[in-house]
Specification:
- The protein has helices at 21-31, 42-50, 70-78, 90-102, 140-150, 171-180, 187-196, 210-230, 235-254; strands spanning 60-64, 82-87, 109-113, 126-132, 151-164, 199-206, 258-267.
- With 300 residues, the chain is α/β, with parallel strands linked by helices.
- It has a domain at 39-168 and 182-208 and 259-267: Rossmann fold (3-Layer(aba) Sandwich).
- The protein has a 7-stranded mixed β-sheet with strand order 3-2-1-4-5-7-6, sandwiched between helices.
- The two termini are 20 Å apart.
């Protein structure tokens, strides 16, 4: 499920009916304390960065829908970049700002409250845009248009998106994703959207199961257990925690029906030759390299 970016939290598929204020209170009590709010890992981030072969030494990076910024901090470790991280959930940005200050990263990393649908950043100003589990909130085609405009010619976009791996998912799986991401497609649908958006597909890979558990579902289940003890005499809170606990349980049973795919794509160069600081010509390879993927079918 998509929780990394807090954009569009009203559409979250964790609640099977319209959540009230108490539901959100408990939701945040679970999610705000997790290392990250969606699948992913430092290993996956490093692998995706490896596809950005012509990224300059000190790139400008935009992290869209950053949540509490687990991946933002990993990008700061893995690169010498200057990073702007945007999310519209102010408490998440406050948490990220505290982590930035604690790690002495304030010179390089800036966290701001903003809307990914209108990031208010100068066009053509980023070498790399990063977004884990957040672009779907505003629709992938629209998100790709926004990213294309914000990237310099030859710039990269690295993002994760949920896709169907098999047809005819069980009703509970379909219902959960229909609430959260009704337009979710298969691998072919995302590849078509990428190409329609004016990008070249450089590579893609499926997140391994460890990327769902180590920093996301395992800490989530531990957190839910803590809160069940805290709210042991509060039936309403326990019912909300049961709804939240259903998501990792569903993944245990049905993970073969859906996946998170990490895509690395590139904006085409300008008509004139574009040279980075290292004076390497930024040109798209004639045949974009693709990582093999497990047979993903498009769900119609």
């Amino acid at each position: 499920m998509h929780h990394e970016g807090h954009e569009g939290l009203g559409e979250r598929g964790v609640f099977m009916n319209e959540p009230g204020p108490r539901s959100w209170e408990i939701f945040y009590e679970v999610y705000e304390n997790l290392p990250r709010q969606g699948p992913g890992s430092r290993t996956c981030a490093a692998k995706a960065l490896g596809f950005c072969r012509e990224l300059r030494a000190c790139p400008a990076i935009l992290d869209l829908g950053c949540g509490v910024g687990g991946q933002t901090l990993q990008l700061a470790e893995l690169t010498a970049a200057s990073i702007v991280a945007i999310d519209r959930h102010a408490p998440s940005i406050e948490r990220l700002r505290a982590a930035i200050a604690q790690r002495g990263l304030a010179q390089r990393v800036r966290a701001i409250v903003g809307d990914m649908a209108c990031p208010e950043q100068p066009p053509g100003s980023f070498d790399l845009i990063w977004s884990e589990g957040a672009l779907y909130n505003i629709g992938l085609p629209k998100a790709l248009r926004i990213c294309h405009d914000l990237l310099r010619p030859g710039g990269y976009l690295a993002f994760t998106d949920a896709i169907w791996r098999k047809e005819n998912p069980p009703p509970e799986v379909k219902a959960s994703f229909d609430l959260d991401y009704p337009t979710m497609g298969g691998l072919d649908d995302d590849v078509a959207a990428i190409q329609d958006g004016g990008f070249a597909l450089i590579g893609h890979f499926t997140l391994p199961d460890a990327a769902w558990w180590d920093e996301f579902y395992t800490p989530m289940e531990n957190r839910i257990a803590e809160l069940r003890a805290k709210y042991r005499n509060d039936g309403a809170a326990l019912a909300i925690l049961d709804q939240l606990a259903a998501e990792p349980e569903m993944h245990r049973r049905h993970a073969d029906y859906y996946a998170y795919e990490f895509f690395v794509v590139r904006r085409g160069p300008a008509h004139a030759i574009v040279r980075g600081k290292s004076d390497h010509t930024m040109e798209l390879p004639a045949q974009p390299q693709q990582v093999s993927h497990q047979g993903t079918k498009t769900r119609r």
